[in-house]
Task: structure prediction
Amino acid sequence: MEHVLEVKNLHKDFHTKKGLLKAVNDISFYIAKGETLGIVGESGCGKSTTGRAVLRLVEPTSGELYFEGKDILKLTRNQMRQFRKDMQIIFQDPFASLDPRISISEIIAEPLRVFNLYRNQGGAKRVAELMDLVGLSKRLVNSFPHELDGGRRQRVGVARALALDPKFIVCDEPVSALDVSIQAQILNLLQDLQKRLGLTYMFISHDLSVVRHMSSRVGVMYLGKIVETTTSHTIFTSPLHPYTKALLSAIPIPKYGMKRQRTILEGDVPSPINPPKGCIFSARCPQVMEKCRQQAPPLVEAAPEHTVACFLISDKLGK
Result:
């Protein structure tokens, strides 16, 4: 498969008064053309920082980022500007991400103006096409963000992201701020756009049910690291990492009377400023071994298209 994005040993550190915060700590993954990679994990695990780092909205501390085979970390600011047409983002909060002082049509047209693609009536026609593409009525063309509900605001965000005909879009929890019924509409819209336009997504979410609906493959993050990656089907039927199993056990069952065995994780998530010495999950893992507290497990291939960072698995496989 052709890889649109390939990430190798990505780090993103932040200097704080309390010390060095490792928000993204040596992660590697790829996203194939036309697929959706879901990134899941608890709040604060580094999902959104990873999404922003691969777009260079925040500059990575170190690592390699290949977009269609080109290492974009080696590009100058002017060179990177051209790549931004192909790499866009849909933000989590549809209200905070829209300028409240300008109309919907101006918001959607802004990327076109920035890249000098807005030409007389041609630009207005493109805005009308984008509004129609995402299901926004023409009567809203002169409306302002505060006049719209959350679902319509997010449709504006989607239209803006599509303005420059991108190939790759980071969807940073695009439905977490919306009502459940509206979430379904936006998710179906994103899937429809992917099929029609051949888009590739990195879909960030803490909701595993949403990730299951959207993703081809899933990467599970904990404390700045990816602990397991596999196909969407396998992650829900045959998870291997104890943290993944705990996450899955917390999904509500939408049927009265049905129950599942819950895995209750004790303690709090360690601080990314002072992470555990060995395995980052060792302080909360119900199956922790002594070696887990001393050294970090490698990310090994447990099966085709299934990698996991856990000594329970690597020792069993002899890796």
The domain at 3-86+166-317 is CATH 3.40.50.300 (Rossmann fold).
